[in-house]
Amino acid sequence: MTRVRKKTKKPGSILLSRHRGLRGDGPSAVASRALSNTSSLSSKVGRTLIRNHHTLQKRLSQALSKNDTETANSIRAEVEANGGIERYQQASVCGQDNQRGGDSSKILIDWLREAIRSSPDKRVTNKRLRLLEVGALSPDNACSRSNLFDVTRIDLNSRDPSIEAQDFMDRPIPTTDSERFDIISLSLVLNYVSLPAARGEMLERTTEFLRHTSLEGEQEQGSRVTELFPSLFLVLPAPCVTNSRYLDERRLEAMMGNLGYQLARRKLSAKLIYQLWHHIGKAQSSGRQKEFSRKEEVNPGRTRNNFAILFR
User: Which is an annotated GO molecular function term of this record (predicted)?
Assistant: First the structure.
Protein backbone atom coordinates (compact mmCIF):
# COMPACT_ATOMS: atom_id res chain seq x y z
CA MET A 1 0.00 0.00 0.00
CA THR A 2 1.36 3.41 -0.96
CA ARG A 3 1.75 5.78 1.95
CA VAL A 4 0.15 9.20 1.40
CA ARG A 5 2.17 12.03 2.82
CA LYS A 6 0.83 15.37 3.84
CA LYS A 7 2.37 18.54 2.52
CA THR A 8 4.78 19.67 5.20
CA LYS A 9 6.21 22.99 6.29
CA LYS A 10 9.80 23.98 5.76
CA PRO A 11 12.13 23.17 8.63
CA GLY A 12 12.21 25.71 11.42
CA SER A 13 14.26 26.21 14.55
CA ILE A 14 15.23 23.19 16.62
CA LEU A 15 14.52 25.29 19.70
CA LEU A 16 10.83 24.77 20.20
CA SER A 17 8.80 25.40 23.32
CA ARG A 18 8.33 23.01 26.24
CA HIS A 19 9.62 19.53 26.98
CA ARG A 20 8.57 17.09 29.63
CA GLY A 21 10.20 13.69 29.63
CA LEU A 22 13.13 11.87 28.14
CA ARG A 23 11.97 8.49 27.00
CA GLY A 24 9.62 8.22 24.06
CA ASP A 25 7.06 5.65 23.07
CA GLY A 26 5.72 5.13 19.58
CA PRO A 27 2.38 6.54 18.41
CA SER A 28 -0.41 5.10 20.50
CA ALA A 29 -4.11 4.62 20.14
CA VAL A 30 -4.78 6.71 23.22
CA ALA A 31 -2.88 9.64 21.66
CA SER A 32 -4.84 9.34 18.43
CA ARG A 33 -8.20 9.28 20.22
CA ALA A 34 -7.19 12.42 22.11
CA LEU A 35 -7.11 14.43 18.88
CA SER A 36 -10.90 14.45 18.75
CA ASN A 37 -11.14 16.33 22.05
CA THR A 38 -9.41 19.74 22.04
CA SER A 39 -10.94 21.10 25.23
CA SER A 40 -9.16 18.96 27.81
CA LEU A 41 -6.80 16.05 28.22
CA SER A 42 -6.41 13.45 30.90
CA SER A 43 -3.03 13.23 32.58
CA LYS A 44 -2.34 9.87 30.92
CA VAL A 45 -3.22 11.06 27.43
CA GLY A 46 -1.23 14.27 27.92
CA ARG A 47 1.89 12.41 29.02
CA THR A 48 1.58 10.06 26.04
CA LEU A 49 1.29 12.96 23.58
CA ILE A 50 4.27 14.73 25.12
CA ARG A 51 6.50 11.67 25.15
CA ASN A 52 5.64 10.82 21.57
CA HIS A 53 6.20 14.40 20.40
CA HIS A 54 9.68 14.52 21.94
CA THR A 55 10.63 11.20 20.42
CA LEU A 56 9.59 12.42 16.98
CA GLN A 57 11.51 15.67 17.43
CA LYS A 58 14.64 13.73 18.39
CA ARG A 59 14.28 11.51 15.32
CA LEU A 60 13.72 14.60 13.18
CA SER A 61 16.94 16.22 14.42
CA GLN A 62 18.86 13.02 13.70
CA ALA A 63 17.44 12.85 10.19
CA LEU A 64 18.26 16.49 9.48
CA SER A 65 21.82 16.04 10.76
CA LYS A 66 22.22 13.24 8.20
CA ASN A 67 20.56 15.29 5.42
CA ASP A 68 17.96 12.53 5.14
CA THR A 69 15.17 14.62 3.62
CA GLU A 70 12.83 11.71 2.95
CA THR A 71 12.89 10.51 6.56
CA ALA A 72 12.62 14.09 7.87
CA ASN A 73 9.51 14.76 5.76
CA SER A 74 7.96 11.50 6.93
CA ILE A 75 8.54 12.43 10.57
CA ARG A 76 7.10 15.91 10.05
CA ALA A 77 3.99 14.34 8.56
CA GLU A 78 3.69 12.09 11.60
CA VAL A 79 4.04 15.08 13.93
CA GLU A 80 1.23 16.88 12.09
CA ALA A 81 -0.94 13.75 12.13
CA ASN A 82 -0.61 13.67 15.91
CA GLY A 83 -1.83 17.27 16.18
CA GLY A 84 1.41 19.17 15.68
CA ILE A 85 2.89 21.73 18.05
CA GLU A 86 -0.57 23.04 18.95
CA ARG A 87 -1.68 19.71 20.37
CA TYR A 88 1.63 19.30 22.15
CA GLN A 89 1.28 22.72 23.78
CA GLN A 90 -2.26 21.90 24.87
CA ALA A 91 -0.94 18.81 26.63
CA SER A 92 1.76 20.88 28.30
CA VAL A 93 -0.73 23.50 29.48
CA CYS A 94 -2.98 20.79 30.92
CA GLY A 95 0.03 19.40 32.76
CA GLN A 96 0.62 22.85 34.23
CA ASP A 97 -2.90 23.01 35.66
CA ASN A 98 -2.99 23.86 39.37
CA GLN A 99 -5.13 20.84 40.18
CA ARG A 100 -2.33 18.65 38.84
CA GLY A 101 0.42 20.57 40.65
CA GLY A 102 2.20 21.23 37.39
CA ASP A 103 3.16 24.92 37.60
CA SER A 104 6.91 24.86 38.23
CA SER A 105 7.04 28.61 38.82
CA LYS A 106 5.41 28.08 42.22
CA ILE A 107 8.75 26.76 43.45
CA LEU A 108 10.50 29.94 42.29
CA ILE A 109 7.93 32.13 44.04
CA ASP A 110 8.37 30.21 47.29
CA TRP A 111 12.14 30.72 47.17
CA LEU A 112 11.84 34.45 46.45
CA ARG A 113 9.22 35.13 49.11
CA GLU A 114 11.35 33.31 51.69
CA ALA A 115 14.34 35.51 50.78
CA ILE A 116 12.27 38.70 50.87
CA ARG A 117 10.81 37.87 54.29
CA SER A 118 14.34 37.53 55.67
CA SER A 119 15.55 40.75 54.03
CA PRO A 120 16.55 43.53 56.48
CA ASP A 121 15.14 46.15 54.11
CA LYS A 122 11.63 45.47 52.89
CA ARG A 123 11.85 48.07 50.15
CA VAL A 124 12.83 45.33 47.78
CA THR A 125 9.25 44.06 47.93
CA ASN A 126 8.18 47.29 46.20
CA LYS A 127 10.53 46.72 43.29
CA ARG A 128 9.11 44.68 40.45
CA LEU A 129 11.78 42.37 39.11
CA ARG A 130 12.23 41.95 35.38
CA LEU A 131 11.58 38.34 34.36
CA LEU A 132 12.15 36.78 30.94
CA GLU A 133 10.08 33.62 30.63
CA VAL A 134 11.33 31.50 27.73
CA GLY A 135 8.91 28.92 26.38
CA ALA A 136 5.91 30.57 28.04
CA LEU A 137 2.70 28.59 27.71
CA SER A 138 0.30 30.73 29.71
CA PRO A 139 0.13 34.27 31.14
CA ASP A 140 -1.61 32.92 34.23
CA ASN A 141 1.10 31.04 36.12
CA ALA A 142 2.33 31.70 39.65
CA CYS A 143 4.95 34.21 38.50
CA SER A 144 2.35 36.27 36.69
CA ARG A 145 0.02 36.32 39.71
CA SER A 146 2.70 37.10 42.30
CA ASN A 147 3.04 40.85 41.61
CA LEU A 148 6.80 40.41 42.00
CA PHE A 149 7.63 40.66 38.31
CA ASP A 150 7.37 42.62 35.13
CA VAL A 151 7.19 39.59 32.87
CA THR A 152 8.34 39.34 29.28
CA ARG A 153 7.02 36.10 27.79
CA ILE A 154 8.30 34.50 24.61
CA ASP A 155 7.64 31.24 22.76
CA LEU A 156 8.03 30.05 19.20
CA ASN A 157 4.35 29.20 18.94
CA SER A 158 2.46 31.81 20.94
CA ARG A 159 -0.92 30.77 22.33
CA ASP A 160 -1.80 34.17 23.82
CA PRO A 161 -1.46 37.84 22.76
CA SER A 162 0.68 38.52 25.84
CA ILE A 163 3.26 35.93 24.70
CA GLU A 164 5.62 37.19 22.01
CA ALA A 165 6.31 34.76 19.18
CA GLN A 166 10.09 34.60 19.29
CA ASP A 167 13.01 32.19 19.40
CA PHE A 168 15.25 33.00 22.37
CA MET A 169 18.29 32.27 20.22
CA ASP A 170 17.18 35.01 17.80
CA ARG A 171 16.35 37.60 20.47
CA PRO A 172 18.68 40.60 20.09
CA ILE A 173 21.44 40.83 22.71
CA PRO A 174 20.64 43.70 25.12
CA THR A 175 22.84 46.79 24.98
CA THR A 176 21.57 48.53 28.14
CA ASP A 177 20.47 47.41 31.61
CA SER A 178 16.95 48.59 30.84
CA GLU A 179 16.77 45.78 28.29
CA ARG A 180 18.24 43.14 30.60
CA PHE A 181 16.54 41.02 33.25
CA ASP A 182 16.87 40.11 36.91
CA ILE A 183 15.69 36.54 36.29
CA ILE A 184 15.42 34.27 33.27
CA SER A 185 13.18 31.22 33.40
CA LEU A 186 14.07 28.10 31.40
CA SER A 187 11.48 25.76 32.81
CA LEU A 188 11.37 22.50 30.84
CA VAL A 189 12.86 24.26 27.84
CA LEU A 190 16.51 23.24 27.70
CA ASN A 191 15.68 19.55 27.44
CA TYR A 192 13.48 20.24 24.41
CA VAL A 193 16.53 21.42 22.48
CA SER A 194 17.60 18.40 20.48
CA LEU A 195 21.37 18.84 20.22
CA PRO A 196 23.76 18.89 23.22
CA ALA A 197 25.84 21.74 21.76
CA ALA A 198 22.70 23.82 21.17
CA ARG A 199 21.74 23.32 24.83
CA GLY A 200 25.13 24.64 25.87
CA GLU A 201 24.76 27.59 23.53
CA MET A 202 21.41 28.44 25.09
CA LEU A 203 22.87 28.38 28.60
CA GLU A 204 25.79 30.57 27.53
CA ARG A 205 23.41 33.04 25.92
CA THR A 206 21.43 33.57 29.13
CA THR A 207 24.39 35.38 30.67
CA GLU A 208 24.07 38.14 28.05
CA PHE A 209 20.53 38.96 29.23
CA LEU A 210 21.14 39.37 32.98
CA ARG A 211 21.74 42.74 34.64
CA HIS A 212 24.03 43.16 37.62
CA THR A 213 22.73 46.43 39.06
CA SER A 214 21.99 46.34 42.80
CA LEU A 215 18.44 46.02 44.02
CA GLU A 216 17.13 48.94 46.06
CA GLY A 217 17.94 48.42 49.75
CA GLU A 218 19.98 45.29 49.04
CA GLN A 219 23.49 46.63 48.44
CA GLU A 220 24.95 44.92 51.50
CA GLN A 221 26.85 41.72 50.88
CA GLY A 222 25.38 38.60 52.44
CA SER A 223 21.76 39.61 52.00
CA ARG A 224 19.42 36.68 51.35
CA VAL A 225 17.94 38.64 48.43
CA THR A 226 21.24 39.84 46.96
CA GLU A 227 22.50 36.27 46.74
CA LEU A 228 19.68 35.39 44.33
CA PHE A 229 20.00 38.10 41.66
CA PRO A 230 20.60 38.11 38.80
CA SER A 231 19.58 34.50 38.33
CA LEU A 232 18.50 31.68 36.06
CA PHE A 233 15.58 29.45 37.04
CA LEU A 234 16.29 26.10 35.44
CA VAL A 235 13.87 23.17 35.51
CA LEU A 236 14.67 19.80 33.95
CA PRO A 237 13.15 16.34 34.07
CA ALA A 238 14.92 14.63 36.96
CA PRO A 239 16.34 11.82 34.74
CA CYS A 240 18.40 14.45 32.89
CA VAL A 241 20.74 14.54 35.88
CA THR A 242 19.84 11.46 37.93
CA ASN A 243 19.93 8.87 35.16
CA SER A 244 21.99 10.35 32.35
CA ARG A 245 25.07 8.64 31.03
CA TYR A 246 26.77 11.98 30.38
CA LEU A 247 25.43 14.38 33.00
CA ASP A 248 24.96 14.42 36.77
CA GLU A 249 24.49 17.27 39.23
CA ARG A 250 28.19 17.53 39.92
CA ARG A 251 29.08 17.93 36.24
CA LEU A 252 26.20 20.34 35.67
CA GLU A 253 27.38 22.49 38.57
CA ALA A 254 30.89 22.56 37.12
CA MET A 255 29.55 23.53 33.69
CA MET A 256 27.36 26.28 35.12
CA GLY A 257 30.29 27.51 37.19
CA ASN A 258 32.23 27.88 33.96
CA LEU A 259 29.56 30.38 32.90
CA GLY A 260 29.78 32.30 36.17
CA TYR A 261 26.78 30.70 37.87
CA GLN A 262 26.57 29.50 41.47
CA LEU A 263 23.80 27.21 42.70
CA ALA A 264 21.60 29.19 45.11
CA ARG A 265 18.55 26.94 45.51
CA ARG A 266 17.72 23.35 44.58
CA LYS A 267 14.78 20.99 44.86
CA LEU A 268 14.55 17.44 43.54
CA SER A 269 11.18 15.74 43.15
CA ALA A 270 10.29 12.36 41.72
CA LYS A 271 9.89 13.85 38.23
CA LEU A 272 11.69 17.19 38.13
CA ILE A 273 14.76 19.01 39.37
CA TYR A 274 14.38 22.72 40.11
CA GLN A 275 17.45 24.94 40.37
CA LEU A 276 18.04 28.65 40.89
CA TRP A 277 21.45 29.74 39.63
CA HIS A 278 22.91 33.05 40.82
CA HIS A 279 25.08 34.71 38.18
CA ILE A 280 28.09 36.29 39.87
CA GLY A 281 29.74 37.56 36.72
CA LYS A 282 32.39 36.25 34.38
CA ALA A 283 33.59 32.74 35.02
CA GLN A 284 36.72 32.25 37.08
CA SER A 285 37.85 29.11 35.27
CA SER A 286 37.16 29.68 31.58
CA GLY A 287 39.91 27.19 30.74
CA ARG A 288 37.47 24.36 31.39
CA GLN A 289 35.46 25.23 28.28
CA LYS A 290 37.40 22.68 26.25
CA GLU A 291 36.72 20.02 28.90
CA PHE A 292 32.99 20.46 28.43
CA SER A 293 33.11 20.39 24.62
CA ARG A 294 33.02 16.59 24.50
CA LYS A 295 30.86 13.93 26.08
CA GLU A 296 32.27 12.25 29.15
CA GLU A 297 30.64 9.19 30.67
CA VAL A 298 29.86 9.90 34.32
CA ASN A 299 27.20 7.23 34.93
CA PRO A 300 27.93 3.96 33.11
CA GLY A 301 25.10 1.51 32.62
CA ARG A 302 22.77 0.06 30.01
CA THR A 303 19.66 1.71 31.45
CA ARG A 304 21.02 5.28 31.31
CA ASN A 305 19.66 7.90 28.93
CA ASN A 306 21.92 9.97 26.66
CA PHE A 307 20.97 13.50 27.73
CA ALA A 308 24.01 15.75 27.52
CA ILE A 309 25.07 19.40 27.41
CA LEU A 310 28.16 20.53 25.50
CA PHE A 311 29.98 23.84 25.11
CA ARG A 312 31.50 24.63 21.74
Answer: rRNA (adenine) methyltransferase activity
